[in-house]
Amino acid sequence: MQLKEPIHVYCGAIGLAQVHGKKIKFDELSKDDYFSKNNEFATWLKEKKKLFFSDLSSEAARDLFSDFVKEWNKGKLDIQYYEGITTAPRSSHAWNIKK
């Protein structure tokens, strides 16, 4: 059976979610994870909010990170976020680097 919405169960500081038929366990986040989850956050900003991290003030980024943490902890994100993202969109600038 394929699920359209993730299911989540809280187990203390460990979350358990079922995303697209795959069960995953993940550590819940807090505001203290702002730097360690920056790639995931920047990707979420671009994909869900249509914003680039570099376009935000520090205060706006911290406020939006709180929204990201809530979605993360509820197990509502795509599996790629929980598995880890190594690079993320940072800027809308198109770099023209010559080789």
Automatic annotation (TrEMBL):
Gene source species: Solanum tuberosum
Official protein name in the record: Uncharacterized protein
Entry-linked PANTHER family: STYLE CELL-CYCLE INHIBITOR 1 (PTHR34117)
InterPro entries reported in the protein's UniProt record: SCI-1-like (IPR044688)
